[in-house]
Amino acid sequence: MNKKSEHTVDALFVITLFLVFAISVVALTGTGAGVYQNVVDKMSSNYNSRTSFSYIYNKVHQSDADGLVSVGEYMGNDALIISEEIDNITYCTYLYEYDGNIKELFTRAGQEFDPSYGTDILEVEGFSIVKVTGSLYRFDITPDKSADETLFVHVRSMK
């Protein structure tokens, strides 16, 4: 009878050790998944802000000619307006935020348009533009609720 109780104690010890190991593995896996999700969220937010900044910066400098870049407003939203002349007709490219997205729309100058017609560039929580000086623009972009980012762009061709 004594040997039987020794084997029972040994078996309970092994089972308890196994349960402690299994609980540790589950806890470690859950912690690792949480850390991984946090890293993925930060990388996504970083990608969104860098992509939007790069897009805006390149768009402004691609059209960097005297008087072609300006700040305006459309339907209560800030808009970057880039003008260009094609076959003696002036066209404008509008960059603006509408319905949670930075949008781009190319249309004839002075023509009214529905802001939903623009092409979605990037999903954002907020977007604003301020002309700081004659040639310096500040873009405030909120890619998600946890971050606000600011970009300054200097237009080189201003007189």
Strand order of the largest sheet: 1-2-3-4-5
Describe the largest sheet: 5 strands, antiparallel
- Report strand %: 35-45%
Number of helices: 1
N-end to C-end Cα span: 102 Å
**Strand segment count:** 8
Q: Tell me, briefly, the overall form.
A: rod-shaped
- Classification by helices and strands: alpha+beta
Question: Spans with pLDDT under 50 lasting ≥5 residues?
Answer: none
Portion of residues within helices: 25-40%
Give keywords:
5-stranded antiparallel sheet, rod-shaped, 159 residues, alpha+beta, 1 helix
Characterization of this structure:
- With 159 residues, the protein is an alpha+beta fold.
- Helix content is 38%, strand content 39%.
- It has 1 helix and 8 strands.
- The protein has one helix at 2-62; strands at 69-74, 77-86, 89-98, 101-108, 119-123, 126-131, 136-144, 147-154.
- It has a 5-stranded antiparallel sheet with strand order 1-2-3-4-5, covered by helices on one side.
- A hairpin with a 2-residue loop joins strand 3 (89-98) and strand 4.
- The chain is rod-shaped.
- The mean pLDDT is 82.
